[in-house]
Structure formats: structure tokens, C-alpha cells
Amino acid sequence: MTVSDDDRLRITYRLATGRQADPHALAQDIALEQSVELPATCLRTAESRSLVGDVEDVHTLEKGVASAVISFPAALLGNDLLQALNVIFGNISLKRGILVTSVEWPSSLLDHVLGPQVGNDGLRRRCGAEAGRPLVCAALKPVGLSATDLSERCFSLAMGGIDIVKDDHGLTDQEAAPFRERVERCQTAVERANRLTGGNSMYVPNVTARPGVIEERVGLAESMGCRGALVSPLVVGLGTVQRIAAQSDLALLAHPALAGGYFGNTHGINPDVLLGTVFRLAGSDGVIYPNVGGRFVLTLEQCLTINARLRAPLGAIRPAFPVPGGGIDTERVPEWIRRYGSETVLLIGASLYEKPSLRKAAEDLVRAVKRTADLSKEAPTSG
Fold first, then answer.
1. Cβ-contact 202, 127 below 8 angstroms
2. Which helix (H) or strand (E) holds 106?
3. What is d(CA 358, CA 363) in angstroms, rounded to the nearest whole number?
4. pLDDT digit string (tens) for 273-303?
């Protein structure tokens, strides 16, 4: 369950208690620290006492490890997602041995959170992608190429039928390919390819930047005809993502830069909570994550759980696309479609650039995705 029945923010923590620590005392410390930040003996009014977190359950998982469920009243949050995150893992992030494993969200908070403004169906329409198949995304690489060279690669990928051609997250405003020139050239290249193929590929520039500049880049991207943007929520701040989602018409792809700092075995926030729910609530229409089998270390179970969180019912919040990247190439397309399903964006990078012809590599990839999706539709169902 991801929406609480009693309109409370309910968090499950995994506590590495060690040999001597009392897990009940640790849970009570979290309940106070994450609400009033005072010892219980200092709470003089009924109102302050009513805001203290409630330790609902503590039980031992194994020697030195316990699970604690702590809930907080919705009144503590002020209908603000950022304050909810502060309550979930604010001060206690500075401690050790506390892992956020799941969250149930108050319906009153969800009523005030916009979430994805384009969502799965909207992004699929923008790409002109038929239902029943994954979308295909390619990363425009590498940093150091000129804007002209990048636009030529963009053209080849769009001619090959790639649905979304996104900037690599390292492309910003470097001298070799300044933001304005790169976006203008790449958007023009994709539009030209679409006219030639009858397709509807999207170019998605990276708008990640400091306050003031990011708004300027969003405006430039929209004025040049872009229909989406790449942003790194933990770099620019989740509040900035919320503002862009609310004030622009761009579909937002979220990049997980810095997220690995939260993914400890005994301390942090589980990937499915951070990437699968928090990024979605902040307004991401698609969330990129490091796929199992790539050069990063998420497990298959974690990837599947991220996918489930991005798609699951969550009040009136639209679902968002999972965008697994890494370990995906043309040969393994059937495997990933079987594992992840059609409501996925498959992100491919290096494996395309390793081929002699970028356009042909893109064509082969898109053909494999469509062929596998067609076979899946034709396969008989059991029962």
C-alpha cells in the first residue's frame, strides 16, 4: 500500500541496532527527532505533543537489525512534498544505521502534489509511439564534440527511428557545444529527420543548471520547439523540478545523478522509494535508473521494484515511465521487454556507438523492439 488509510505519513525504517542498542529507543528517538526535535519532557502543549511521530511497530529482523514503522500526522507536512522528505529522512540522514525501506503517503499531501504533467500516455503521444511497445531512447554522446557533430549524431538517431534522443547529462554549456547552439542545431536536425521519415522523434536537451539559468534554458528549449527536457533532480533540487513541471509544457526525464549516495546497505533511502516514488511525485514523466547488468550495482529485484513504483496507482498522480539504462543492446531487447514490459523506455548508449553506422544501429534496435513487441501481442495467453 502506498497511500495511508488514515491520512498519516507512514515510514518503515530498517535499523542497524548493533549488539547493545534498544530498537524501541532508537525508533522513539527518530519519532521525536523527525517531528519536534525535543525530548518528550520538553513538550508543554497538547498541540506540540500531537505532532510527535507515533512508533507503531518495532520487531527484530535478525541479530542487530530491526524494522520500525513510524507515522507522522499530515498536519506536520503543510501539504508540502519537500517538508515530507525532511520528515522522512532530514536530521536522521546525519546519523547512521537508518534505512528508509517504504513510505505510505497521506492522501491530503497527494492532493497538493502535481506529479508528472505529461505522464506515460502523454509522452507516448508526443513520440507518436503506438501502444504495446516500449519507447526507445538514445543518449547523445560524448562531451567534447562540437554542436554540429552532435546534431549530426542526433539526425542519424532520429533517422533510425529512435523515439527520444536525449542529451547526455554531462552536456551543459561547454565551449565545444554551447547550450543555445547545441539545442538549436539538434532540434533542427530532429525536425528535418522527422520530415524525411514521417516519424515523430523528440530531442530532449539537458537543462540542469543553477537557479535563474535553468529557467532560461527551459524557456529556450520550449521556444525552439523541444517537447521534453532532461533534468537531474538531486543536483537542481526537487522543488525546482516541481516548478518546471508546473510552469512548462516539457516532458521531464529525470537523471539519477547523486542518487547513489542514498543507496547504502544500512543507511539511506531505498532506490524504489527515491527514484520510483519521490522523483515521480516531484514531476518526472520518466525516471532514468542504472539497469542491472550495466556498470552500476542495482539488482534485478531493485529495478523491478522501481518499475512497479513508477507505474503503481498513487492517488490521482499520473504514472511515469521507467527508463532503465545500461546493459541494454539490440541482442538483449527480447529479454528486457519480457522482464520489464511495454510501459518502459529502453535507454541505449554505448552499444549504438560501437557499431560502424549509427543510423543502421538505431534502425536495427528499433526493428528489434517492434518485432519483439509484436510477437508479445500475438503470443497466446494462458488461463
1. yes
2. none
3. 9
4. 999 999 999 999 999 999 997 777 799 999 9
